[in-house]
Amino acid sequence: MTMGAHVPPKLDTASETERLQLLAPKSLMHRINDWRRQQPDLPNLSEAVRRLVEAGLDAADREGGGRVESDRKA
């Protein structure tokens, strides 16, 4: 197995992106870091947060929490 096989894919910066700054308690950061270390490709912190947010939104959709149109322009 090559060393690059464990590197998670980079965010496609050619697509439209926005920066998000987040202040979080240390306990939450520990939970995120514990979660990402359990992933087979060891995502970086930004990718881990993106995946967890997507999973949370998907779960909310399944529970009937409703989804806000993500492509709506502000």
The average pLDDT is 83
Write down the overall geometry.
globular
Computed structural class: mainly alpha
Sketch the major β-sheet.
none
What does this structure look like?
This protein starts with 25 loop residues before the first helix and ends in a 12-residue tail after the last helix. Helix content is 41%, strand content 0%. By secondary structure, the protein is an all-alpha fold. The chain is built from 2 helices and no strands. The chain has helices at 26-37, 45-62.
SSE layout:
Blueprint: H1 26-37, H2 45-62
Based on the model shown, name its key terms.
74 residues, 0% strand
In short:
The protein has 2 helices and no strands. It is mainly alpha-helical.
